[in-house]
Specification:
- Helix 8 (294-301) runs antiparallel to helix 11 (357-371) and helix 13 runs antiparallel to helix 14 (445-455).
- The chain is α+β, with helices and mostly antiparallel strands and 495 residues long.
- Strands 11, 12, 13, 14, 15, 16 and 17 form a seven-stranded mixed beta sheet that branches. A four-stranded mixed beta sheet has the order 1-10-9-8, with helices on one face.
- Helices cover 30% and strands 23% of the residues.
- The model is unreliable at 1-40 (pLDDT under 50).
- Strand 8 and strand 9 form a beta hairpin.
């Protein structure tokens, strides 16, 4: 009997142990299985390819093609980088201040190195600025800055030609080592460095760059594709993986790739002759602005590749958000009231447009929108040369123009006699005077925008977008902007 009891007890112990073991296995099976392989960053040295122009220089101070400028974005750093709101964020700069209205002081990170292990300090920045100021690509954007001076190893002073409290937004020029020495390629301090192998040109991850930069694409081949049409074809057949396109939207629509709209500072506007004709009346100019259905022009004439100008400034920008004054939809009732207030007897008006397809489409829509409030509109479509001649002689009522505003958002092209977009504007109008006062620090931006809304010296329509196009096999939160084309390349990867 005792033996039987012992046997039963032993059996119970074995069963319990077995159940515990089973229970333990079940608990373990519910835990996530971690694949160590999948946790690693899978590097790619062959899949990602970019176009460049072999006949153009790779130096940021000698090249003049957008193609090479885009590639240079991977190799060189700047004091500041453009962000999604068309403002700037520090890259190698750590701070900036204005010691007086025409002196901008910038401090940079200490201990920076170029990819060849040479020092990047304030001397390097001043040398780069001097080269950039004379370069074909950067010259016009740096006109506001007279010179740069070294204050210490990490401090630079930029002397301005006139007061400009947004001048730091212009400091996006690439910084390259001024003396190449034995190097075949220009040297930067950016995420990648130029290299070659097997008769091919590449950019390869710079080992001296920030430790936290761990991209999948560690080596990127550069493919010689100089022409715009050839770049589009190379995208379609997969010879390159990515391109920034600032082209007509009918070309963009033919691209067989993934696309993402990105912001750029290109203003499309109605130029107005405020010196003569029906448009010399401020009420008529306001009526024209009120009649515009900007959202429809964006959707139909630009196929959605634009943003309605609800301000003088880009609607994404901090200035644009602060100074909203236009509706994206038309206000026909208010437009008709402004026409009535003008007491102008004639209602005939002409719109001058050049050979640009988008602007021709916009002119047709604007004609319809103005006629809906009582104007009689004639579109004059001219060759590019004849269009320029008509602008220079101010032989127009309205014209459709486009300009790329600098990143300090200066409007001096409109409010300076003889400047590139000043056609038809009375430089003695209150808006022009208030703008110059604002630049000099004598007035707040609100006074200028109020004067602008009364005078309406030109009429913002929209800000045109660009597009980043990339392989359909690519994944990641694709971001990029004009001047910051690969803002988060470390997050891009292939399936």
């Amino acid at each position: 009997m005792t033996k039987r009891i012992i046997a039963v007890l032993c059996s119970l112990v074995i069963i319990a142990a077995t159940m515990c073991a089973c229970s333990k296995e079940n608990v373990q099976s519910q835990r996530p299985i971690i694949n160590e392989q999948s946790a690693q960053i899978v590097t790619d040295t062959t899949g990602f390819k970019l176009s460049y122009t072999q006949s153009d220089s790779l130096s940021p101070y000698e090249s003049d093609s957008l193609n090479n400028h885009i590639v240079q974005d991977l190799v060189f750093e700047s004091l500041f980088r453009i962000d999604e709101e068309l403002d700037v964020q520090p890259e190698i700069a750590t701070s900036y201040s204005y010691s007086d209205p025409t002196t901008l002081n910038v401090t940079i990170i200490s201990g920076l190195k170029f990819s060849d292990d040479s020092v990047l300090d304030a001397d390097s920045v001043v040398e780069a600025f001097n080269l950039a100021k004379e370069s074909p690509y950067w010259q016009s954007s740096l006109e506001a800055i007279r010179n740069a001076r070294v204050l210490s190893a990490t401090e630079i002073a930029f002397d301005l030609n006139y007061p400009d409290k947004y001048a730091h937004r212009l400091l996006t020029f690439y910084i390259a080592r001024s003396t190449q020495g034995d190097s075949k390629f220009p040297i930067g301090s950016g995420r990648y460095a130029f290299t070659e192998g097997d008769g091919k040109l590449y950019v390869e991850v710079n080992p001296l760059y920030r430790e936290e930069f761990t991209p999948r694409f560690t080596k990127i081949q550069l493919v010689n594709v100089p022409a715009t049409d050839s770049i589009n074809n190379a995208l379609n057949i997969g010879n390159i993986s990515y391109a920034y396109r600032d082209a007509a939207t009918d070309e963009i629509s033919r691209l067989k790739c993934s696309k993402k709209k990105v912001s750029q500072n290109n203003l499309v506007y109605l130029g107005v002759n405020s010196k003569s004709g029906i448009t010399a009346n401020a009420d008529i100019r306001r009526a024209i602005s009120l009649a515009l259905d900007r959202a429809t022009i964006v959707k139909s004439a630009y196929q959605g590749y634009a943003k309605a100008a609800t301000s003088i400034y880009h609607p994404n920008s901090s200035l644009g958000r602060q100074t909203q004054m236009f509706s994206s939809a038309s206000d026909t009732a208010a437009a008709k009231q402004a026409i009535s207030q003008s007491e102008v007897s004639g209602r005939s008006i002409s719109i001058l447009v050049n050979e640009n397809t988008n602007r021709k489409s916009a002119a047709t829509l604007i004609k319809q929108q103005l006629e809906a409030v009582g104007f009689y509109v004639d579109i004059k479509s001219l060759s590019n040369d004849a269009y320029v001649q008509a602008l220079e002689s101010e032989s127009f009522d309205l014209y459709i123009g486009e300009t790329k505003l600098p990143f300090d958002m200066r409007l001096t092209g409109f409010f300076t006699e003889g400047a590139s977009t000043s056609y038809g504007i009375d430089q003695e109008c209150n808006a022009a005077l208030e703008y110059n006062s604002f630049l000099g620090g004598g007035a707040e931006i609100g006074k200028f925008t109020l004067a602008f809304s009364v005078d309406m010296p030109f009429i913002p329509i929209l800000y045109r977008d660009a597009v980043i196009c990339y392989s359909k096999a690519m994944r990641g939160d694709m971001q990029g902007y004009f001047g910051n084309y690969f803002s988060n390349i470390q997050d891009w990867y292939y399936n």
